[in-house]
Design brief:
351 residues; alpha/beta; Rossmann fold; seven-stranded parallel beta sheet; two-stranded parallel sheet; 11 helices; 16% strand; globular; binds UDP-4-deoxy-4-formamido-beta-L-arabinopyranose
Amino acid sequence: MKKILVTGGSGYIGSHTIVDLIQNGYDVVSIDNLSRSNPQIMERVEKITGKKIKHYQVDLCNYDETFAVFQENPDIAGIIHFAAYKAVGESVEKPLMYFENNLISLINLLKCVSEFKTPYFVFSSSCTVYGSPDSIPVTEETIPKPAESPYGYTKQMGEQILSETYKSLDGSAILLRYFNPAGAHPSGLIGELPIGRPQNLVPAITQTAIGKLPDMKVHGDDYDTRDGSCIRDYIHVCDLAHAHTLALNYLVDKRNLSHCEVFNLGTGEGITVLEAIKAFEKVSGRKLNYDIGPRRPGDVVAIYANNDKAKTFLGWEPKMKLEDMMRTAWQWELNVQKDEALFSNQPTDLN
Ligand code: WQD
C-alpha cells in the first residue's frame, strides 16, 4: 500500500482527495498548519473512510519541521501538494505574504523530495494561470497570459519551479489545473469552509440562502455572454479529488510521457453566474436574495476547459452535474448550521 503525503490535508480539496485516495487503496499522511482550515475536518475524513490518519500540524515554510516528517515517513511514495494561500483579493493586498508562503513551502517540499528521492509529485494548480484567454475552451497548450493577481503568479511560478526542477530530479510531476471547484462530499460531513465573507460564487450563494449573508451581488450582467454574466467551468470537488488519485496511478504505473505533465480539470461546460443561481434555486427550492452589482476587477469574462487530455491519459470522467454541486453544497451548508457549535472555532478572518 503506497503512502502518500497530502499537504493541506484539512482543506477543502485536500480532505476530499484523502477520502478518495484511501477508498482507492492508498495510505495517507497529512500535513496542515491549520492556519486556514478546521481540525474537525480530519476527524470527519476518518469517519467517512473508517481509517485513522496520521496528521502533522506543521508549517511547510519551516524546513526543519518539514524534513522531520519525511524522516519519520521515509516510505512516502508520492506527494499531493495543496497547502497554499488562495484568496485572490488578499493576495493583491499582501503580495509578499503570498510569494513567501506559497513558494517557500513548495521549495522546502522539493528539497525534501530531493533528499528522500520521493518519486511522484502532484501539484495543485489553477486555471487562473491562463489569465483571460483569447479563445475558449482552453487546452493545456493554451499559452498562459500574465496572471491577474499575485496568487495567480504563485501558481505560474510554482509550475515553472516544478517543470525546471524535475528536469534534474529523479521522479515525475503532474500539474493539475483546476477550474472552479464546487459542491461537497455526498455524506454531508465535509465541504468548503470559507474564512470570513466568501469570495467564491457557490459558498456566497449558500451562505446568502441560509441567511449568514443578508444578500449577494452578481458582479456584472453587462458582459458579452449569453445572459450578460461571467462564464466559468464548475467542477464537483469529488470529481476533482478522484482526478488526483488517477494522476498518481498514472505516475505509479509509469504511463507518463515526460517528467512533468499538465492536465486541465474541468467539466468542459461553461456556466454563467445567473445559470448557477437558477440551478441552486431549483435544487434548494429557495429564492435567492441577490441583485446585480458592478463588475469585479480582475474577473475573466469567460473560461472553461477542454478536458480531453485528462480523459484520454488519466481515464478521468467527471460525473457530477451542476445540480449535484448545488445540492451537495446546500446540504453541507445546512449541516454546518446544525453543527455550528462544532465549527464555532472556525477562523473568522484571514490571518
Ligand atoms: C466565479 C464567478 C464572479 C461571487 C477563483 C479563483 C481561482 C480558483 C477558483 C483557486 C465570477 C462571480 C462570485 C459573488 C459573483 N481558485 N461571483 N458574486 O474568480 O472564477 O476563480 O476561484 O484556484 O484561482 O480566482 O471564482 O467563485 O470567485 O467567481 O457574481 O458573490 O462568480 O464575479 O464571475 P473565480 P469565483
